[in-house]
Amino acid sequence: MGTDVIVVGAGVIGLSTAIRLAESGASVRVWAAEPPAETTSAVAAALWGPDFADPGRTWAYATQPELTRLAADPATGVRLCRGTQASDIQSEPPPWVDRLLDVRMLDPEELAPGMLVGLRTTAPIVDMPRYLDYLTARLDVEIELRRITSLTEPAAEAAVVVNCTGVGARELTGDEGLRPWWGQHVVVTNPGLDEFYIEAVLGHEWAGFFPHGDVVVLGGISRPDVWDRTPDPLVAEGIIARCSAIDARLADAPVVGHRVGLRPWRAKPRLEAEQVGAARVVHNYGHGGMGVSHSWGSADAVVALV
């Protein structure tokens, strides 16, 4: 066979995996139903952060130095940003607080209403449209736009197939444990913010904003089992209201766009290999809203399986 590996999917997980495979010496092709700019990855805010449990926590730890290195080059869309993280889930600092940079725990009077704990830190944030362009250029392989109905299609053309299809993996693999978690962001003109803010909450609505140059990406919301990617005006109003309660400058910031994506949620990400015909198929999907944070660590895990 002329192709060693076909990676299916061109979001952040697929592109990062394809890069790691290509840079390890494999001949790589990428098949995708959508170009990178139309994937859920392009909708992400996106802030690096670890999970509470493995394997995601290990993957996030492995991703952190890669994103930190990329932050030295403005063309990547990655930069180190100061900001605030708060939570209503528990009153103690997160178990991975020692992995964060320049941490200062917030005093109770500094917390937004309802938050039990908070900290200020410096972390990588990613302008996803620019970052996906960077990853595509770094891969230097033409992305072949083709929608498949079975993994037997790429398995007929390559010895190894890597399935990075996000929510599309539900239909391709019959994995009913994989569900879409609908999310929406509002993009506004930056009124002067240079720090991020994010809440980790028990509910499905929270405040989060991430400055990327001339714009700020506002969130957030999560709705399980919704497939329609149409923006909801009422959701947008709620997002703006929650974010404005944290920083009043956002209340009158002109809206320049709305972004909707389907987070590929699964109780545990799937990263494992199986045989399909003569090909070895490695699944790498189900990262929920942690795709950017898991990306390089899970890509390294795929290389180890291949």
From TrEMBL:
Any one GO cellular component localisation term in the record: cytoplasm
Transmembrane segments annotated in the record for this chain: none
List of residues binding FAD: T40, S41, A45, A46, L47, T165
Catalysis: reaction(s): a D-alpha-amino acid + O2 + H2O = a 2-oxocarboxylate + H2O2 + NH4(+)
A Pfam family: DAO
UniProt keyword Hydrolase, yes or no: no
Signal peptide: none
SUPFAM superfamilies: FAD-linked reductases, C-terminal domain, Nucleotide-binding domain
List of residues binding D-dopa: R263, G289
Class in the EC hierarchy, top level: oxidoreductase
Source superkingdom: Bacteria
Gene Ontology BP, a term: D-amino acid catabolic process
EC number(s) on file: 1.4.3.3
Requisite cofactors: FAD
FAD dependent oxidoreductase domain mapped to chain residues: 4-304
InterPro entries: D-amino_acid_oxidase_CS, DAO, FAD-dep_OxRdtase
GO molecular function, one term: FAD binding
Alphabetical UniProt keywords: FAD, Flavoprotein, Oxidoreductase
Family, per entry: Belongs to the DAMOX/DASOX family.
Name under which the protein is recorded: D-amino-acid oxidase
Originating organism: Actinokineospora globicatena
